[in-house]
Automatic annotation (TrEMBL):
InterPro entries assigned: E3_Ub_ligase_DUF908
Compositional bias segments (type: Polar residues): 223-235, 274-284
Origin species: Puccinia striiformis f. sp. tritici PST-78
Domain DUF908, first and last residues per copy: 110-466
Biased composition (Basic and acidic residues): 261-270
Protein name in the entry: DUF908 domain-containing protein
Segments of this protein annotated with the region Disordered: 213-235, 251-311
Pfam families, per database record: DUF908 (PF06012)
Amino acid sequence: MTRIKRSWKKAPETNPKVVVLIKEFVDLPDPELIAALEDAITTGWQYPRSDLMFWIPVLNRFDAYLETTIKEYELRGPGSKKEKDSDGKEVKENDSNRIGVQVNEFAPDTKRMTLAIFGFIKLLLENCTNRKLFSSYDRLNDFLLTTDTDVLLANLRLILRSAQQWSVQHQDMNGGFGISHSRLLDLLQSWSSIGGTEKANLTLVELIQQSIPTSSEAEDSPMDTNPLPSNPQHSPEVTFLFYRKVDPKPTAQLPIAAKPTADEKGKGKDVATGPSTSSNQPAHSPTTPTPKSRPKEKSSAAQTSPAQPLAPVEGLATIHVSADTLASGRRPQDILADLIEQHQLPIDCRFKLFHRIRIAIALRNSLDVRRFAVVRLLALAIYAHTTDETTAVSKLFIYEPGLISQLSELINLEIGGDGLGGDIQAAAFYALEGISRYRGKIAEVAGAVGVSVSHGTLMQVVRKMAKELERERAACKDEFIDSLFCFLSCLQLSVYAGSLLVGAGVVPVLVDICKNSHPNQIGTVIRAVTNLDGLLYGFTSAFALFNQVDGLKVFVNRIKDE
């Protein structure tokens, strides 16, 4: 299947090593391709900036593999793009036969290949021009239905990189990003809807702080970091409300049961009093014998049609998943399948209920709490980048007014920590970056992170990162460094926030980062120079601070060293 069809007007030259790499990725069989992609992701981009046009054959192969995986594991649901036949007509699909999420686990090679594809596409989008050519968003949208947390995280990171680039080009939020907003809302929903446990009343910050192990023994056995009390009152449980719609076919049969009332000419009073006992009985017969016989007719009529009470009732319905069910060790998708059969859950509500069940089970494991916290924050960042402010306020911020303050607390966690602290901080910075693009939220974000003061939360994190980077083996992850600089770049777009950032003393810290001569920190120095360039040209006071710390000498000496 060819996803991208475009030809050069005049074929330009490219790096010969890139040409060899492209041919290798196209011709290699799948087992060898997995190892080649993983090696390319580990070593990083080692070539000059490329054009995504050269990588069309590779992207088409990736898309074909993802399409095959989606069909094999039934990763389709509401919001998925309809498939078309050879004539271009949409193929009708029976959604009732699917539970709406992935059922079977990925095979080991399939999982490795999927993770490698997501990681390498992200690498291409970061180091290539002509990024608009990438058009496999429908595949990424389907992979949001996966039950594998590793694949879900890799998918969200890839979508976030595309969303960041898309929001810059579509500031009016028109044109459609290609990712279902309803699925993103399900992933970023608050965990307070999960009851039955003391953790349900805790904020996301408190949950993460409780999940961080405090000793080496806790790190060796993450399942025991927060042991679940044996008391069932402290066990998580799920209550889910949904509106059940009944098909018109069974409801059309209901008037048929009332047809005998039209034959009143043959049966007289006996049938007429059946359906109208409450209204006509007192007027016709005040005597006692007749009311005694009429209830018998009702009961016999009820016995003749026992299927009617079993039919689903249209209206608001409630599903309760007990703590015993969640603690049974069954997979969330298996629990969901049983609930669908019992309650005839509509296809539109299945992923939302599945994610709640998944979170309720994850609350028993500290490691899962942190992993799904990253999932929630990444989904929030993508949603903020691809949704206009009015929609975000009506569907998100009105229900979580303290969300920004919670994010500001998350960025102040210890850098590195147990290996996941950096991921949580990075996801929080990405979420703040997306929210900062809303004009009505930039002031709230700036106040929450303390942009205006040198000892605020943001400047403390920036200084801590700069000091950590001076070590030969810094504990900072590249994702955390990228998220922090992305957030600083976003603040510069606002005159209000940018001026506060300059006044807080960010320029001297960025100059200190430019002095870093470690070979593995070249990318960090480039990010610092890019941020300095924006500050110097956007704010006049930044240039004076740049001269005070001899920034020009630092740049000249760095050029000589290079």
